[in-house]
Amino acid sequence: MSVAKPAVSVLGLGMMGSALAAAFLKAGHPVTVWNRTAAKTGPLVAQGAEPAADVAGAVGASELLVLCLTTNDNVRGILEPVAGSLRGLTIANLTNGTPAQGRELAAWAAGHGARYLDGGIMASPQMIAGPDAYVFYSGDPKAFEEYEGTFGALGGARYVGEDAGRAALYDFALLIGMYGMGIGTMHAFALAKAAGIPAKDLADPLREWLNAMALFITDEAEALDTGEHLTDVSSLAVNQAALPNLLNTLSDEGIPTEFFQPLERLINRAVEEGYGADGLTRLPDLLTPRR
Ligand code: FVH
Questions:
Q1: Interface predicted TM-score (ipTM) of this complex, two decimals
Q2: Which of 99, 126, 208, 286 has the greatest count of CB atoms below 10 A from its CB?
Q3: Are residues 29 and 84 in the same domain?
Q4: Which of 182, 184, 134, 125 has its CA nearest to residue 157?
Q5: Residue 77 alpha carbon to ligand 1 centre in Å
Q6: Are residues 145 and 14 both part of a single domain?
Q7: Cross-referenced Gene3D superfamilies, in alphabetical order (predicted)?
């Protein structure tokens, strides 16, 4: 005998919300959809979703509400008018927002008798439900336990704690890593382009190099957690000596260096403070405010 899967209402059918709703449908959940611009419900209704005429209709249709809007202000904007109907429901808010906003929304939801989970989606819409997609969740532990299987329709479900702000913190930590890599990649391509090298000639070596460097992340974490920064890989002193060559190479091709100047200042500071023999893992310590 098959057990009925929980009903889900998905509010916000942009690129990501539509992918989430489609994944819930594919996994066999009854899905109600609502979007400010109603026309976006069409493709999902064609796949079996029930369209809600308004937010109240979506809230009334399922005990699990999944929200994916542009900002958390939008989330408050659509939920405030139906706050009186939220008692007993679970809100899984997968909208991008700060940890502080996640905590505020959790307190607001609790004030209206609803359970709250905040989520950070680590996937593009095309990756949803695939093997590499996952979502960080934080907030009400019982709500996560109850809906972990349902969230499995989207990909991995990683619970990171009761503090509703924690998922956003993990999300941004990973996005910061991604943007850092993006800044490096964009300068690498700009340098190649300025020197007349086709981007495709650089793509494979760049990807191979970044993959190889990513293997050091676990060792770096260990160094940070133990405070053992002495290195047999590459010292801050040698990086201090090499970085001007990198900046000069960019300058020689007319490419701005301002993204890398703060890195140069940080390495200089580290060496001045006596950490020249340490590895790059010393730098996060210098960025962390002393409490
Ligand atoms: N797309 C991605 O790859 C990333 C992956 C990681 C997570 N992000 C976050 O997901 C949120 C939604 O992003 P999105 O890509 O789906 O964005 P859009 O396609 O632009 O859709 C935005 C939806 O939000 C609705 N909306 C905006 N403002 C309001 C409002 N004031 N009231 C009600 N709904 C609103 C919008 O409605 P409409 O314009 O279609 O009427 C869309 O449904 C986001 O937090 C990413 O950072 C995605």
A1: 0.99
A2: 99
A3: yes
A4: 134
A5: 14
A6: yes
A7: N-(1-d-carboxylethyl)-l-norvaline Dehydrogenase, domain 2 (1.10.1040.10), NAD(P)-binding Rossmann-like Domain (3.40.50.720)
Residue 205 is assigned to a structural domain of this protein: no
Statement to judge: residues 98 and 230 lie in one domain = no
Ligand 1 pocket residue status of 267, Cβ below 6 Å: no
For residue 130, being part of any structural domain is answered with yes
Gap from CA of 35 to ligand 1 centroid (Å): 10
Q: At what angle do helices 166-194 and 236-252 cross, to 10 degrees?
A: 50
The residue whose CB lies within 8 Å of the most ligand 1 atoms, and thus the one to mutate among 55, 70, 121, is 70
Distance CA 22, CA 162 (A): 28
Specify whether 25 is located in the same domain as 157: yes
Question: 268 in ligand 1 pocket by Cβ < 6 Å?
Answer: no
Please indicate whether residue 96, judged by its CB atom, sits closer than 6 Å to ligand 1: yes
Structure tokens at 60: 């009334």
How much is the pTM? Answer: 0.94
Contact 32, 50 (CB under 8 A): yes
Q: Which of 169, 185, 203 is the last residue of a domain?
A: 169
Give yes or no: residues 161 and 242 share one domain. Answer: no
Dist. CA 283 → ligand 1 center (Å) = 35
Strand partners, 34: 11
User: Considering the domain boundaries, does residue 178 fall inside one?
Assistant: no
20 close to 128: Cβ distance less than 8 angstroms? yes
| Domain residue limits at 123 | 8-169
- Ligand 1 pocket check for 36: Cβ under 6 Å: yes
Domain count, the chain: 2
CB-neighbour burial class of residue 280 (10 A; exposed 0-12, middle 13-18, buried 19+): buried
